[in-house]
Amino acid sequence: MRIEVTPADVAASRYAVSPLGETVSALRLHAGQRASDGLGPWVARTRPAYERLRREVPAVGALLALLRRGGYNADFIQPPPDGTARDFHGELAVVRATPLAQARDELARNLAGPRATPPAYARRIYAAPNVVDLIADAIEAAWQALVEPDWPRLRAILERDLVRRAGRLLAYGWGAAVADLDPRLRWIPGDVGVIEIDSNDPDTHSLAGRGLLFVPTVFGTLIAYVEQPWPYAIVYRASGVAELLGPPDPARPDDALDRLVGRSRAAVLRALALPATTSQLVAQLGLSLGGVGDHLTVLREAGLVSRIRTGRAVRYRRTPLGDALVAD
Q1: Which ranges in the chain belong to alpha helices (H)?
Q2: Where is the HTH arsR-type domain (predicted)?
Q3: Over residues 222-246, mean pLDDT
Q4: 67: closest CA among 20, 115, 19, 100?
Q5: Does domain 247-326 sit in CATH 2.60.120.200?
Q6: Are 63 and 139 in contact (CB under 8 A)?
Q7: pTM of the prediction?
Q8: 10 Å Cβ neighbour count for 142?
Q9: Is residue 228 pLDDT above 80, yes or no?
Q10: Where are the chain's structural domains?
């Protein structure tokens, strides 16, 4: 696949996060359809919730039976964000608004070709008159069980990556913005630059001044949207993911920071590369609530972290002194 871009497309390009896309990708990660790539601790922590979801919501299995690599996946299940900062429920409303005829056509295309036959219960769901709502209900249940509890930190990772990506595009142009998105993507410079992506699509697509939508992902992988009516979009893996979602590796040898402030307190300080609540740190690090609270008190008194209130939530973040102490 080739996507032609020009300098005029820089100003028209947009950036968005997709909580619904993260939900579908998190399901695929648990189902073994995606490599964990450092997310093993998160998968292990949320595995009981995923297994309960599979038992209690049959449509989750039907949804997973549709998803495959190297083939067409029904577009209405995971439409790209439109760049209007929709939250999860706004994105889910777009799914629920899919006309039944469109869903039937996309499901038929999704299920065509050589592949394993979906189980009987899944075929009954696909044939149901309320198939769109059943699939949307499955996505909503997955959001509540797997992604919503961690969403503040996930969103912070994604938004941080977007700021970095937008800055590189505006300051240095297309080559700097897309060159490190994914190993399967190549930048070919020229008067009309080309983003070349390894895929089964041999066609060339031109942005023609419409710009490109950048969508970072924590749980997903490279996806290029080039079919109408969706905007031209590239979903790519955000940077700085693995160290923020799981506990530290117990086999890692102590470094100078561990020896200075203690291994657990150092882990709390490292985890605050992005703001987090006490409960998020407990879930991430596997420490007790009291232990995390004690560590935060000491770190705050030492001037290494500060508190910020967002609505009813209190989040902690590193101070410049904390950043300097954690830096290599």
Answers
A1: 8-12, 19-30, 40-56, 58-66, 88-96, 100-111, 120-127, 131-142, 151-172, 174-178, 242-245, 256-261, 263-271, 278-285, 289-301, 320-326
A2: 255-326
A3: 80
A4: 115
A5: no
A6: yes
A7: 0.79
A8: 27
A9: no
A10: 2-15+153-237, 19-150, 247-326
Q: What is the pLDDT of residues 160-196, one digit of tens each?
A: 788 778 888 888 888 888 878 888 899 999 888 899 9
- For residue 295, the one-letter residue type is H
pLDDT tens digits, one per residue of 75-94: 899 888 876 668 999 999 99
Q: Strand 14-15's sheet: what is its strand order?
A: 14-15, 213-217, 233-237, 223-225
* Residue 214 three-state SS: strand
Cα-based angle 156, 157, 160 (whole degrees, multiple of 5):
80
Indicate whether 69 pLDDT > 70: yes
Whose CA is closest to 146, among 42, 230, 217? 42
Instruction: Give the per-residue pLDDT at 244.
Output: 64
Evaluate whether 191 touches 283 at the Cβ level (below 8 Å): no
Rounded distance between C-alpha atoms, residue 158 and residue 19, angstroms: 10
What secondary structure does DSSP assign to 116-142, as a single string?
PPPPHHHHHHHHSTTHHHHHHHHHHHH
